[in-house]
Design a protein that fits this description.
Elements (H helix, E strand, L loop, with lengths): L10 E3 L5 E5 L2 E5 L6 E7 L13 H10 L8 E6 L4 E7 L1 H16 L6 H13 L7 H8 L19 H11 L5 E5 L32 E4 L4 E9 L2 H21 L6 E7 L4 E9 L5 H16 L5 H13 L6 H15 L6 H10 L2 H13 L2 E4 L10 E2 L11 E4 L7 E4 L3 E6 L2 E6 L3 E6 L5 E5 L4 E4 L9 H10 L5 E3 L22 H31 L8 H29 L4
Parallel strand pairs: 3-7, 8-12, 8-13, 18-21
Antiparallel strand pairs: 1-2, 2-3, 4-6, 4-7, 5-6, 9-11, 9-12, 10-11, 14-15, 15-16, 16-17, 18-19, 19-20
């Protein structure tokens, strides 16, 4: 339902007891609840609205807006998600008024003296946050734009200026782009949520880095993650619950492969939702787990869905309507649908949709889930199950100058006027300058480029031969300025260097024994050979007798020759083995 922001006295109440009105031009929904007052101010802006070069700016605005609250007993927080930012509070009416008024006042005049400090806090927060099983799937599915930003750190923080932050707050944190919800029957006295005027921003259009689905990509050992995007519907929500039951039954209770085997349904934007299925296993059991996982999906796709499972998950969904103070419990979801402009069902309409879902409907959802599936799989791939391998390298390389790697004869960098390619054994990545989402520029000359499809090329002058300043200038001139982030100097230890050549191996033990054998056998052999020669000469007739002095001289020369030839032979053998 759209509310006329120019008519602040407009007030309507639906069949569930939720009142809709306008406060300071902000769409507002109310529903009474006992206990402390709870309120939330939602803005239709999140990480998916950013670019990779500005990623983190929404989160930065949220932190700056909350800084002045500092420490205290008030229960409040802020959250930045993919499609929304949420400021929420719990307390007395006076607490709610002070908090929300303070947030809106701060959005008008953000404390820019805190900009660098809050950037550091955000980087620290990201370092302590796990990657999660779905982040890699976002990057492989969407690339480095729209919802794919969930797969990246907030890489734009270094380049965001105070002017950027002010402009983002002025255009995205506006009255027309917000919804307020309060668990009360009236608006608390003194609430003044004056915000800039602007316009409502629809959710961003999803990008894609997948040429086809269903597809798979390699993941870490021990975990399988399936994601699938499909239209938002009651049937899809129930299917996710049925899938979770089947996975738990087959992978944990029956097979004993997994500790966690579950599925969930999450709205992604106005019209689409994501079904996520997850299972874990020990390395020695992961192949069996993957096989059982695929079997569960095959069973559901074949229409072998138990009516009892549908009845069970339907009963759990219907039980949510039996909560006390249902209107207040429904309020945050109602506000979110209002923010995203997604039709919000009354309780009666939602009940009717739940009751109408059939096993045949779930069968159709199962087919749709499989058709759009992207599976992060450990171990061997899923080609045997009919899934295509998601692209693990770029389909083409650019022409241009060749720059061999300093330490790796198989590595190569190619710089052209329209793009750059990095080639190594088993890897080929290309970024076209016109399709670059981010280029990080380092003072030491490095350029790190990320393409729309998520492929990354690192131009490191220390690692490749003959990269000139003129070639770096060509890259800088070709990449759009809007995607360039200038990075601070790197610590010397963080600048990559060519791998050091391997030190010469120590002489093998057998070489030592070979040397000793030459000396042990060589010298006695010379002595014996010389003695035999002298005796042979001495016993011959007088006509051929060698003078005694000449014999001694010959024997001496044989000893000297042996003393020289044996070490020389040892050195020659070691030189041929590559030793010093």
């Amino acid at each position: 339902m759209d509310i006329d922001a120019t008519a602040p006295t407009t007030k309507t109440t639906d069949a569930d007891g939720i009142t809709t009105t306008v406060v300071n031009g902000i769409r507002t929904v109310l529903a009474p609840r006992s206990g402390p007052l709870t309120a939330g101010l939602l803005f239709r802006v999140g990480r998916a609205d950013e670019t990779l070069a500005t990623s983190g700016i929404t989160h930065l605005v949220e932190h700056l807006a909350l800084h002045h609250h500092g420490l205290g007993d008030l229960h409040y927080n802020g959250a930045t998600a993919l499609t929304y930012t949420h400021f929420h509070v719990n307390g007395t009416p006076a607490d709610v008024v002070a908090y929300l008024n303070g947030v809106c006042a701060a959005l008008h005049d953000l404390p820019m003296d805190r900009l660098d400090t809050e950037k550091e806090i955000l980087r620290t927060e990201a370092a302590g946050r796990g990657s999660g099983p779905v982040r890699a799937s976002a990057l492989w599915r969407y690339g480095s734009r729209s919802f794919g930003l969930a797969g990246y750190a907030e890489l734009g923080l270094h380049g965001i200026t105070a002017d950027d932050v002010r402009a983002w707050a002025r255009t995205r944190f506006t009255a027309e782009n917000a919804v307020l919800w309060i668990t009360g029957d009236t608006v608390p006295e003194g609430l003044d949520l004056t915000l800039p005027t602007g316009e409502w921003h629809p959710t961003p259009e999803a990008t894609s880095a997948l040429p086809t689905t269903p597809a798979w990509f390699p993941g870490e050992d021990g975990a399988l993650v399936l994601t699938s995007v499909l239209p938002r519907s009651t049937a899809a929500s129930l299917f996710a619950d049925v899938l979770g039951k089947e996975l738990f039954r087959a992978l944990r209770q029956k097979g004993g492969y997994s500790y966690t085997a579950a599925a969930e349904y999450t709205p992604r934007d106005t019209d689409s939702a994501t079904v996520v299925a997850y299972a874990d296993a020990l390395p020695q059991k992961q192949d069996a787990m993957v096989g059982a996982f695929v079997d569960v999906l095959a069973k559901l796709r074949a229409g072998r869905i138990e009516q009892a499972d549908l009845d069970s998950v339907r009963a759990s969904a219907l039980a949510r309507f039996d909560l006390p103070e249902l209107a207040a419990a429904k309020l945050p979801g109602h506000a979110m649908n209002l923010l995203l402009r997604h039709p919000d069902l009354t309780v009666a309409e939602a009940r009717a949709e739940l009751e109408a879902v059939t096993v045949s409907d779930l069968h159709q959802v199962a087919e749709a889930v499989w058709a759009d599936a992207l599976v992060q799989v450990p171990g061997r791939g899923l080609d045997w199950a009919g899934l295509a391998a998601a692209p693990a390298e770029s389909a083409e390389v650019v022409g241009g100058l060749r720059h061999p790697a300093v330490a790796d004869s198989g590595g190569l960098l190619r710089l052209a006027e329209d793009g750059v390619s990095q080639i190594a054994p088993g890897r080929r990545a290309t970024v076209r300058y016109a399709e670059c989402s981010l280029m990080q520029v380092f003072p030491d000359g490095a350029r790190h480029l990320i393409g729309h499809d998520g492929f990354t090329v690192a131009v490191e002058p220390t690692l490749y031969h003959r990269i000139t300043p003129a070639e770096l200038a060509t890259i800088d001139a070709a990449v759009p300025a809007s995607v360039v982030v200038r990075m601070p100097p790197r610590e010397p230890s963080r600048i990559p260097r060519p791998a050091e050549p391997r030190p010469a191996a120590a002489p093998a033990v057998r070489s030592v024994w070979f040397t000793a054998l030459l000396w042990v056998l060589g010298l006695p052999g010379l002595l014996i050979g010389g003695s035999v020669l002298l005796m042979a000469l001495a016993v011959s007739d007088d006509h051929y007798r060698v003078p005694e002095d000449s014999a001694r001289q010959l024997f001496t020369w044989l000893l000297l020759a042996g003393a020289f030839l044996i070490p020389w032979g040892v050195c020659l053998k070691r030189r041929r083995q590559g030793k010093n």
